[in-house]
Amino acid sequence: MTSISDQLRQFIAEETGMSDDEFQNDTQLFSEGYIDSFTMTAVVAFIEETYEVDIPQSEITLENFDTIDNMTAFITRAKG
Fold first, then answer.
1. Is 18 a domain residue?
2. How many independent structural domains does the chain possess?
3. Domain with 69 in it: what CATH number?
4. For residue 76, what are the contacts with CB-CB under 8 A and spacing of at least 6?
5. Whole-angstrom distance, CA of residue 44 vs CA of residue 55
6. Is residue 16 part of a domain?
7. How far apart are CA 51 and CA 28, in angstroms?
8. Which of 36, 43, 65, 69 is the most exposed place for a label (fewest CB within 10 A)?
9. Is the pTM of this model over 0.90?
10. Is residue 33 in some structural domain?
11. Which residues form the Carrier domain (predicted)?
């Protein structure tokens, strides 16, 4: 089975048209301009649908979503 971080990398690469070797799991995707708010919305929807978690607006923060590592940790916590 593909890991959460690998699935996120693949999705983000497809959404942005980048190769997944252009960024790492600890790259600050939003802060460094790799993704914009429209792509972030798509990422949040992907996470909700793929991992069956509800993400309240208040949880959509840089702390939770700026890197793939942060997103993976958030998903792991949300799935409990």
1. no
2. 1
3. 1.10.1200.10
4. 4
5. 8
6. no
7. 22
8. 36
9. yes
10. yes
11. 2-79
From the number of C-beta atoms within 10 Å of its C-beta (0-12, 13-18, 19+), residue 78 rates as: middle
The answer as to whether 17 is a domain residue is no
What is the model's pLDDT at position 44?
97
What's the pLDDT tens digit per position in 39-53? 999 999 999 999 999
34: nearest Cα among 57, 55, 16, 53: 16
Residue type at 67 in one-letter notation: T
Q: Give the pLDDT confidence of 29-39 residue by residue, as tens digits.
A: 999 999 999 99
Range of the domain at 49: 4-10+25-79
Q: Is there a contact between 5 and 11 (Cβ–Cβ < 8 Å)?
A: no
